[in-house]
Write a structure and sequence with these properties.
This protein is an alpha+beta fold. The protein is built from two helices and seven strands; from the N terminus they run H-E-E-E-E-E-E-H-E.
Amino acid sequence: MTPRWPSCVAAVGAAAGLLLGVIEIHKSLSVTVSAERVVLASQDEQWEFASNEIDKVLLASKQLILIDHNGQELTRQACDLKPRRLYSAFVQHGYSWAEGAPDNTA
């Protein structure tokens, strides 16, 4: 008879990996961009900004930053989304990107 513990350990490891994946997805930033507003959501929090509040958008050190017309930060959120995709979404909806288009890396 072979011991069952290796398959049990594998099942526990798989379950733990799945749980960690779900937690990370839950913690990651979701960004919804339209011509009227930007909605950011992470975990159980949500931030909404009207387009007329936002002067510029930038991504620095994996943080998405929205800047108002006075040069003040409206919000700064950790963001692991692809820089090029963020840039395209914001620019296509009429927002100004604070610095040049990000490269395809990062």
